[in-house]
Specification:
The protein contains 15 helices and 20 strands. With 469 residues, it is an alpha/beta fold. The protein has a domain of 262 residues: Monomethylamine methyltransferase MtmB (TIM Barrel, Alpha-Beta Barrel). The strands form 6 sheets. Strands 5-6-9-10-12-14-17-18 form an 8-stranded parallel beta barrel, surrounded by 7 helices. α5 links the parallel β5 and β6. α3 packs across α10 and α5 runs parallel beside α12.
Amino acid sequence: MAAPSLWEVLDRACNTGPVMATKDFDMKIFSVATRLTKEYDIKYDPKTPVTIDDSLADDAWNAGLQLFTEVGAYCMNSSRVIKFDESEIKQGLKELRGEAIIGEGSERRILKLRKVEDNSPPSIVCGGVIESNFPEGENFVKLYQSIAQEPLIDGFYVGPPLQSSEGRLVRSGTPLETHLGRSMVSWVREAIRRAGRPGLHFISACTSAIANIAAADPNEGLRRSDGIVSTIMPELKTDYENLNKIVYSHDYGCIKHVYNGGMIGGWAGGPEGALIVSIANAIMAVIVYQMSVGASYHALGYLRASTPNYSAFVTRPCLWGSSIGSQALSRNTKIINTAVAMTNAGPGTEMQFQEIVAAICASIPCGREGLSQGARRFKVVPLLGSGLENRFWGEVGHAMSKVKRDFANSLAEEMLQKFEHRITRESDGGPLGHTLDEIYDLKTLQPRKRFLDVYEGVKKELEDLGLEF
């Protein structure tokens, strides 16, 4: 049996899928994930933030595949379950090509499937800033110019978008966001021109589909070598906005960039259930969001912890699940799996650099491809983000391609010992960090010495621990 077409998937999502209450779908996820963690004997091991157990990765893959087969996906607008039989799912996975082309001219890159402990450098490092509110216009341009001028950056994520458009408050789905989508991309194109890299790939993460559609323009806007971000919501859910983005990406011919992750403490349960659900989410990306059709790549977001003490991405249980999920997809699929990890600490701090190292330990040696940068998650502060932390992602990402998982595990443990005690709700996760104008001289667009000293100090510490740059 052939994999279902996009149009068949949409028909099931909008018209023919069985109707189910959201709470019943959520409870089914919880009960099936709980059962499968026991059947496959998947147990969280806090002493091993980066696992070297191949059989555990394969068990997690099989559990995730079984979960998606039993549960399916859920469209929140129609309250319909989007179900597939096992043969449809396996055929969709079989049709993946394990390769995608992004960017143009001298910035053209070929993303390739990466294997566990693959000693080749990552084919891309995708930078950017997440959860920040940069002022419109020149400062926005300077932020992305500071990222684009870094030689190891092969593209970047733009957004979520600003909170203002023409000085007015932006609400999702309003005409102001439509205008902002176009403005934001024009500023990005100016940034990459100033950096001397006009063909550099970027992906737009506007919340509404219409804002991304308004940005599409092969000459001055979002090109076919660029991408639109579509999200799978916790857990195994989609909506018309994200499906509209997929349809437009399909028709326009640009890159589909699909983001998902598992939520520890949500309907998936603990770290074990969140791991299984994150793998099921990745399968949903292939089948529902049609990653096997056209150019696409997938960002298996780090598991996110939501507990009474913290809400964070770079923590011990999150690293454990993310490292296994990375290996599960690399060993069993042709999904081009990139990493997204939002740090708890803000830019320009020693703690953020340490978190980046820990995140990469659970990524590159575990079979993930390119890296995506994320800034501080807890508070949205104007101008919070810079090219310096993106430079660090690139340098550490390339260095970590040379190491084995056992070294990555020991290095992750070293980093966790330095910062994990600081990730609490009371401390708001760690230091707030510094703004672009504090980290960089905005006239020269170069980092200031005191922040370079912090950067070089962490690099020296990593070299002393055995990481070769």
